[in-house]
Structures
1.
Amino acid sequence: MFILDKFYGAFLGMTVAADPVKLMKQEVGKAAAALVKSGSIVGLGTGSTTAYTIQFLGERLQSGELKDIVGVPTSFQSEVLAKQYGVPLTTLDAIDHIDIAIDGADEVDPQKNLIKGGGAAHTREKVVDYLANQFIVVVDSGKLVDRLGSTFAVPVEVIPMAITPVTDAIKKLGGKPELRMGVKKAGPVITDQGNMVLDVRFDSIDDPVNLEKTLNNIPGVLENGIFVNCVNLVLVGEVKDGQPVVRQF
Ligand code: 5RP
């Protein structure tokens, strides 16, 4: 698919013009998979970027270049993709550490703080990503922001019976919560854990460390999508001179 995209883009005289965001995601997803070493326990993130990582891990295993890895999925989606591409899986009950986790993000600030949860998987992602000895984030350049909350609302996973009091508590904090609704499914999005998601807009997130704690202290909140002080490396897919490239910080 990747080669085809490049071919058709080049044929049209615009190497990445067909879908630059997709090409950036492919390039950065593959770059992260290339960092995984044989024998590693790997946290498998969720989303369209890490889907390429999982695909490439499977290709490296199949070619014999990579051996003896096991993945810890962060969602039903990553579990299905790992099975599809032949990446063996394990659970947190069967291991005592994670060597490397690779995951996407919806926003990344200059301090490497994140907003995650665009796929409603941030609770399991946070468990796996925070356990990893090395946590690598893979994003296209459109995800970089000066300040968290500039473009994306903060996803908050809430147990269903508490949705009304949690909504009220978040409004008192100055947030504007909106219940995430399903696409091609009537009613709210239901997470892999059977809960609901409030997408919360804040005028400005000046202190992500405190906001993460404050949101999680509301009774009925399971987890929110602010990730702070946990990322080792950010890989950014960009387009330079018509070609997808990867830079890191
Ligand atoms: C899912 C996530 C994703 O990692 C995040 O939404 C980025 O997704 P994509 O790679 O599709 O842009 O946090 O809960």
2.
Amino acid sequence: MPNSKITGVGMYVPEQVVTNADLSKLMDTTDEWIIERTGIKERRFFKEGVDTVSCMATKAAKIALERAGKTAPDIDLIVFATLSADYNFPGSGALLQRKLPFRQIPAFDVRAQCSGFIYALSVADQFIKTGMYKNALVVGSEVQSNVFELSDRGRNMSVIFGDGACAVVLEATDEPNKGILTTKLHTDGHFAEELYLEHPGSRRKQRFSPDMIEKGELLPYMNGKLVFMNALKYFPEVIREGLDACNLKETDIDLLIPHQANARITAAIQKEMNLPDEKVISNIHKYGNTTAASIPIGLCEAWEQGRVKDGDLIVMAAFGSGFMWGSAVIRW
Ligand code: ACO
């Protein structure tokens, strides 16, 4: 059975940098509050007409393909992780497919929010392991800046998130013990409403009503403290589950790439795993929480900085809305 390995990674973030000071002009918040609670100093906001989720993904995909030494027609499958697709339907995978000269390959979206990239990677990995496909493009891309309200009412969430995209090329390999060694995925839907955006959903007879905006019903809701507590439980648990499945230990980790939810969550995982700073990716200060894009952006920056070397053990892990969580253990 072949394994799949990442052979190219590319990222794109919008040009506009929005600092905490910029946000404090729009709402009752401060640089100190945001840094202390989240570690975020700045984030990127998309430009309408330029940076759609699929456009950003296309730019990232071009770089990933070039670095993998592939062209779009080489790709057999696109798995696109996002919670902020360009349209309600069809998914952004279909839009990406038409932007580059891909063949008429399967291209679909995965809805797993902050765990989207791990889920998408796992899906693509299964297709490659079964031999159905040889080359896959796995993407995480998000526009978050327009779902929150840049106001006092929206300040609890709007300061946390940012926009960006990243893509990886996943290829079949026969090299033993190389590539994705395992992925572990979990969901507990009992917590679905603890971090969610209810509208416009299909539950109501009328998906929109004129008073929804005024009532704030089109804004996401997050039970921040509960998310925090569960993240601290499930991140270490799913990392250990992945390592155990490969007969590996925490001390074997060369690089941990956690979903960039919050710098305090990353610091707590690092402490629990007993890992030094150089083995843990933390770039939330630059981009905020980019949801499905955060893990591959972390990988991309680490790769560009020469922090990912042949033979390294890379562990990725995520936790988020659903609640859904997961990990990927990779021998580079
Ligand atoms: N600026 C200033 N004050 C604020 C802001 C803001 N942006 N947002 C909220 N506040 C106020 C609140 O109104 C509250 O005021 P009050 O005491 O007068 O009522 C006070 O700050 C404390 O609010 P809490 O919500 O209790 O703040 P908390 O200490 O819990 O921090 C946070 C909030 C950062 C969201 C925290 O709960 C957390 O880190 N949660 C984890 C969730 C997370 O990281 N989510 C990321 C996305 S989900 C994911 O990726 C997994």
